[in-house]
Design a protein that fits this description.
With 183 residues, the chain is α+β, with helices and mostly antiparallel strands. Helix content is 27%, strand content 17%. It is globular, with a radius of gyration of 16 Å. The two termini are 20 Å apart.
């Protein structure tokens, strides 16, 4: 399935995803609020903390249909890497729900992320931005499980856990960054 990603706009040709033309990217991001949703085909999405490593890890999972990196968590509009404006680097994951479930993504996040201490930086903090009641309940259930099974500092969930606001797609050079380094 690779990293094929549907276009967020009818003007964008999804067959050539990801777009490499800055004009196409500008069209894609113009006025778009890219929240996680269950679309008409009941295809779920999810979102996690910082770029490169997590994006590479999630995109390699069986059942990951595509990933994209971007910025979320601030009311400031149109962030860039050079002007992140209070946003956090984030990874959006579209998954099939059969080979890869939301609960499996939560397990991966809590196994790998620094969820138990506050971050020194808004840009690089760990967080989960959930979408919808079902995802929120799954996160709360996972947090309760952590509190019951972990000890000491690891029993405390201090990372950002909140509903997703606006998600801004990052610049093309950040997309599939680790995969590009291999070439």
């Amino acid at each position: 399935m690779g990293n094929k990603q549907p276009a967020d706009d009818a003007e964008i040709d999804a067959a050539d995803w990801p777009p490499t033309d800055e004009t196409v990217l500008a069209k894609l991001n113009k006025g778009r609020n890219c929240p996680l949703t269950l679309n008409e085909e009941n295809e779920p999405h999810s979102l996690w903390d910082d770029f490169g490593g997590p994006e590479a890890r999630f995109s390699s999972k069986k059942g990951a249909l595509w990933t994209r990196v971007g910025y979320t968590g601030s009311k400031n509009r149109w962030p860039t890497y050079q002007k992140i404006s209070g946003h956090t680097e984030a990874v959006q994951v579209k998954y099939d729900g059969k080979n890869l479930t939301y609960e499996m993504l939560l397990d991966e996040f809590f196994d790998e992320a620094n969820y138990y201490s506050f971050s020194y930086s808004t840009q690089y903090k760990s967080g989960i931005w959930w979408h919808g009641e079902e995802q929120q309940q799954a996160v709360l259930k996972k947090i309760e499980q952590i509190k019951q099974t972990k000890k000491g500092a690891y029993a405390n969930v201090k990372c950002t856990i909140e509903p997703l606001g606006t998600f801004y797609r990052a610049e093309e050079y950040h997309q599939r960054y680790y995969a590009k380094l291999k070439h």
